[in-house]
């Protein structure tokens, strides 16, 4: 499948799925402000009208944890979660290093695959059209005119293993990657909107006292005791996810598989995961769907309007 066709598919409205999730904290949870080295590490609070400053679980923490589950599932079975060949390939080369620099390619093609992939993603019937196609699509991917001209020269010389070619393939493959379509990547926003998880009732916090560890020598830093504030087990949170226009049914399948996995095994969020902190269980899940792909007459019929 060509990049152009995939972009068209991504532009089509399909449906909106709203998922409401109840989470229960099962072990002390600390999501902090990143103020390492302080004697008192508070949990992150935000001001919610009518409730005051309360500890929340920020969307970024939830997105990171869900994304890791999705990556694990997709990579363990790329065939199950892809409809097209390029999708399967995109999952295989999806880069999961959390600390990859912003410029690192998200889907670096494997050695020797560049020619086939480039011809396939940017294909056209004639050489002349092929060049036009490359121009249009690279422009859409955010490449500068200068880089596009340079890349076309490289292609004309048949140097498909060039870094610029690999970069173009990597950017194009992101559109074929169900993980990136769900959570987003450098070039586009994800289709899954994730809110902050908000406590259902009042929140009780307590403190743990720990000994600071010097990072350089891995020994206890003398006199460096610190207190870690945590949300007590049993606290319930509500989380809302909205999946908007997932382009293929495999994206939806991958999303449901992720939530099933979380329902079975829970998630671990925040600080000190190695000591068993931050275990969160998914208790309940409610969904609502608005389907745009159905024929409008069908919808009217169901509503008894025709
Ligand atoms: Zn990806």
Detailed description of the structure:
This protein is α+β, with helices and mostly antiparallel strands and 306 residues long. The chain has one domain (3-94, 177-303). It is 37% helix and 23% strand. It is built from ten helices and eleven strands. The strands form three sheets. Strands 1, 5, 6, 9, 10 and 11 form a six-stranded antiparallel sheet that branches. It has a three-stranded mixed sheet with strand order 2-8-7, with no helix packed on it. The protein has a two-stranded antiparallel ribbon with strand order 3-4. The longest helix has 18 residues, at 59-76. The radius of gyration is 24 Å and the shape is globular. The model has no long low-confidence stretch (mean pLDDT 88). The structure holds zinc ion (ZN). The site of zinc ion (ZN) has 8 residues, from helix 8. The site of zinc ion has 8 residues, from helix 8.
The count of domains is: 1
The backbone outline, from C-alpha atoms, is globular
> What distance separates the N and C termini?
39 Å
Mean of pLDDT: 88
How many runs of DSSP E, i.e. beta strands? 11
């Amino acid at each position: 499948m060509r990049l152009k066709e995939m972009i068209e598919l991504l532009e089509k409205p399909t449906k909106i799925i709203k998922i409401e999730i109840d989470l229960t904290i099962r072990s002390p949870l600390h999501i902090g402000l990143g103020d390492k080295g302080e004697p008192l590490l508070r949990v992150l609070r935000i001001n919610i009208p009518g409730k005051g400053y309360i500890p929340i679980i920020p969307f970024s923490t939830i997105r990171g944890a869900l994304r890791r589950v999705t990556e694990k599932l997709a990579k363990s079975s790329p065939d199950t979660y892809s409809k097209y060949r390029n999708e399967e390939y995109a999952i295989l080369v999806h880069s999961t290093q959390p600390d990859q620099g912003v410029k690192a390619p998200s889907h670096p093609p494997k050695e020797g695959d560049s020619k086939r992939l480039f011809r396939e993603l940017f294909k056209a019937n004639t050489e002349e059209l092929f060049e036009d196609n490359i121009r249009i699509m690279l422009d859409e991917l955010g490449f500068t005119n200068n880089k596009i001209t340079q890349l076309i020269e490289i292609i004309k010389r048949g140097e498909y293993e060039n870094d610029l070619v690999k970069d173009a393939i990597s950017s194009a493959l992101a559109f074929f990657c169900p993980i990136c379509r769900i959570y987003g990547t450098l070039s586009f926003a994800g289709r899954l909107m994730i809110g902050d998880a908000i406590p259902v009732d009042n929140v009780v916090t307590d403190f743990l006292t720990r000994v600071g560890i010097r990072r350089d020598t891995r020994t206890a830093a003398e006199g460096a005791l610190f207190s870690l504030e945590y949300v007590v087990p049993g606290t319930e949170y509500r989380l809302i996810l909205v999946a908007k226009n997932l382009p293929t049914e495999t994206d939806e399948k991958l999303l449901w598989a992720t939530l099933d996995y979380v329902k079975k095994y829970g998630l671990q969020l925040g600080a000190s995961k190695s000591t068993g902190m931050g275990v969160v269980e998914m208790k309940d899940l409610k969904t609502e769907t608005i389907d745009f792909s159905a024929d409008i007459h069908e919808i009217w019929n169901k509503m008894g309007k025709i």
